[in-house]
Write a structure and sequence with these properties.
Layout: H1 2-51, E1 63-67, H2 73-82, H3 89-98, E2 107-111, H4 117-125, E3 130-132, E4 134-139, H5 146-151, H6 165-173, H7 175-184, H8 186-194, E5 210-214, H9 219-234, H10 238-243, H11 248-261, H12 265-280, H13 288-295, H14 304-307, H15 331-338, E6 349-352, E7 359-362, H16 365-379
Antiparallel strand pairs: 1-2, 2-3, 4-5, 6-7
Length: about 375
C-alpha cells in the first residue's frame, strides 16, 4: 500500500514538473512571438518612415516623369518607383489613399530624387508642377490612314500651332526622321526600311490609341509617341513573328487589310486564313481596299479601270503582300494574322454584307459567285 502511495506521489510530482516545463516553453514561445512582432512592427514603422524620405537627399539630378492619361494612383506609384523618384510604391499608394488624393493629372513633371514623398506628391498636385500639361488628346482610330490622321490635325492647331496637316505629312515623308526612328526601334522598323515602292514608310505603324498633346509639341514628337506605342504593343510578338517566318512589314500589311475587311475577331482570323491561302496559291489577294489606297480615294463600287490601275499597291493585279500597310491596324487584327483560322478548309474567297456584317466564304469561284448572289439578295 505504501509503495502504491509512493508511485502515485512520484507521478504527481512528474506531472507537475512536466506541466511546469510546458508552461515555461509556452511562455518562451509566446515571448519570442511577441519579440518578433515588436521587431517586425519596429521595422515596419522604420520602413514606412524611411519611405517618406528622399531617395537620395544629396542628388542634384532632375528626372522628367510622364504621367499618362487615365493613370490610377497605383499606376503612378509604380511609375515613380521605377524612375527612382520615390522609395516605395506601396507606401505612396496607401498614403494618397489615406489622404483621399484623387486630383493627379496627366502631364510631364520634373521631379528629383532629393525630394521627399510629400514634396513629390505636392508637385504632382499643383497646376504649375507640370512642365508639359496636355492641352489636347489626339485619337488615332483603327483602320485610318496616315493622311486621315494628318487631316484631323486642324482640331488641335488652336491649342498647338505646330500640329498641322502639313507638318504631320512632312514627318511621314521625312527620310532622315525615319532613319533615326529605325535605329531607335530596330525590331519594329527594320523590314519597313527595306520595303520598296512604299508611299509612307510609317503607314501602319501609328498605333490606334489616344495620345497626349502638350503645349508646343512638335509633329515629330507626336509621331514618335505613336511609334513607341506600336513597339511596346508588338514587343511580346516579335519572337512569334520571326518563328513563323514573317517580317513585321508583312504582318502589319496583312493586318491592315484584315482590319477593314473583318468585323469580329472570328471573322478577322478567317479572312487572314483566306489571304494566306491565296498567297500560297500565288493568287492576287483582290482586296478592294488595295485599289482604293492605290487610287487614294474611297469608292463604294470599283470599275474594271479602277482594278487595273498601275500601282504596286493594287493587289488585284499584283500577287504577294504588297509594298506595305494600307492603314493603322489594331492589335486584334495583328493577332488574327498570327493566328489565322480555318486554313485547312481551303477557303480562297469571301464576300461581306456591309449592312449586317455577315461574311460568306467559298473554296471555288462558283461558290464565290453563289455567295455574292446570296449577299445581294440579303441587301434587297
Amino acid at each position: 500500500m505504501a509503495e502504491n502511495n509512493r508511485d502515485t506521489n512520484q507521478k504527481r510530482v512528474m506531472r507537475k514538473t512536466q506541466a511546469g516545463v510546458v508552461h515555461r516553453i509556452v511562455l518562451w514561445v509566446v515571448g519570442i512571438i511577441v519579440v518578433l512582432l515588436l521587431i517586425v512592427g519596429f521595422m515596419g514603422v522604420r520602413y514606412v518612415k524611411s519611405s517618406f524620405g528622399a531617395v537620395d537627399a544629396k542628388s542634384t539630378e532632375t528626372i522628367n516623369v510622364k504621367i499618362p492619361i487615365g493613370s490610377t494612383n497605383k499606376d503612378i506609384a509604380a511609375l515613380l518607383a521605377s524612375k527612382k523618384v520615390i522609395k516605395s510604391a506601396m507606401v505612396f499608394d496607401y498614403y494618397v489613399k489615406s489622404k483621399n488624393y484623387t486630383d493627379f493629372q496627366a502631364g510631364v513633371y520634373q521631379l528629383k530624387p532629393s525630394m521627399n514623398l510629400q514634396q513629390v506628391i505636392s508637385t504632382l498636385r499643383t497646376d504649375d508642377g507640370a512642365v508639359a500639361r496636355p492641352v489636347a488628346h489626339v485619337l488615332v482610330r483603327e483602320g485610318v490612314t496616315a493622311e486621315t490622321i494628318a487631316s484631323s490635325m486642324h482640331k488641335y492647331t488652336k491649342k498647338d500651332k505646330n500640329l498641322t496637316k502639313k507638318s504631320f505629312m512632312a514627318v511621314m515623308k521625312d527620310k532622315t526622321f525615319f532613319k533615326r526612328m529605325a535605329v531607335k526601334y530596330p525590331e519594329l522598323l527594320d523590314s519597313a526600311s527595306k520595303a520598296k515602292h512604299v508611299r509612307y514608310r510609317l503607314e501602319g505603324y501609328l498605333f490606334p490609341a489616344t495620345y497626349d498633346v502638350s503645349k508646343n509639341m512638335s509633329a515629330e514628337s507626336l509621331v514618335e509617341s505613336m511609334l513607341a506605342k506600336t513597339d511596346e504593343t508588338l514587343s511580346p510578338l516579335y519572337k512569334t513573328i520571326k518563328s513563323k517566318g514573317y517580317t513585321v512589314q508583312e504582318v502589319m500589311t496583312l493586318a491592315s487589310l484584315v482590319e477593314r475587311e473583318g468585323v469580329t475577331n472570328s471573322s478577322r482570323k478567317k479572312i487572314a486564313g483566306v489571304f494566306f491561302n491565296r498567297i500560297d496559291a500565288k493568287m492576287p489577294l483582290q482586296s478592294d481596299l488595295t485599289v482604293m489606297y492605290a487610287l487614294n480615294t474611297h469608292k463604294k463600287n470599283l470599275t474594271n479601270k479602277d482594278t487595273s490601275v498601275d500601282s504596286p499597291y493594287n493587289l488585284y493585279i499584283h500577287t504577294g503582300y504588297g509594298p506595305g500597310p494600307y492603314n493603322q491596324p489594331s492589335l486584334e487584327s495583328i493577332q488574327a494574322v498570327l493566328n489565322p483560322s480555318d486554313r485547312s478548309a481551303g477557303y480562297l474567297y469571301f464576300v461581306a454584307n456591309m449592312k449586317t456584317g455577315k461574311i460568306l466564304f467559298g473554296r471555288t469561284l462558283a461558290e464565290q459567285n453563289a455567295n455574292i448572289a446570296a449577299i445581294g439578295s440579303d441587301n434587297n
